Amino acid sequence: RSPIVALNIGEHDAGAVSDELSESYGIATRPGAHCAPRMHRALGTEEQGAVRFSFGYFNTEAEIDAAIAAVKRIAESPSIQPQQPWHWNAFAGKRGFPEGSFPCQER
């Protein structure tokens, strides 16, 4: 068992999926590279990133079932349209780091 689950839904942008989970289902996730650029390079998801669920002690089985159902609904829906592809450099700029110098980025 693991409280951390990272996934992608087809070619959908991780940020768009995470936004949909938050806005439509009230489920908080974290999209992005998660300080693992080499893993994303190996998986071919550098531009897409991944959606990470971090379950904890206080999450109920009902909440986990709701997350699974939400992912299934999103996967079955063609409606997610990313506004722009996610990339860690874009995220870094929004957080005040100079372009290309995000702390987790491989050097």
Number of helices, where a helix is a run of at least 4 consecutive DSSP H or I residues: 4
- Assess the beta-strand content as a share of residues: 5-15%
- Mean pLDDT, to the nearest integer, reads 79
Shape: globular
Helix content: 25-40%
Tell me the distance between the termini: 33 Å
Number of strands: 3
- Helical/strand content category: alpha+beta
The helix-strand sequence is EHEHEHH
Using only CA atoms, what is the Rg? 14 Å
Describe the structure.
- This protein is α+β, with helices and mostly antiparallel strands and 107 residues long.
- It has 4 helices and 3 strands.
- The chain is globular and about 35 Å long.
List descriptors.
3-stranded antiparallel sheet; globular; alpha+beta; 4 helices; 107 residues
Précis, in short:
The protein is α+β, with helices and mostly antiparallel strands.
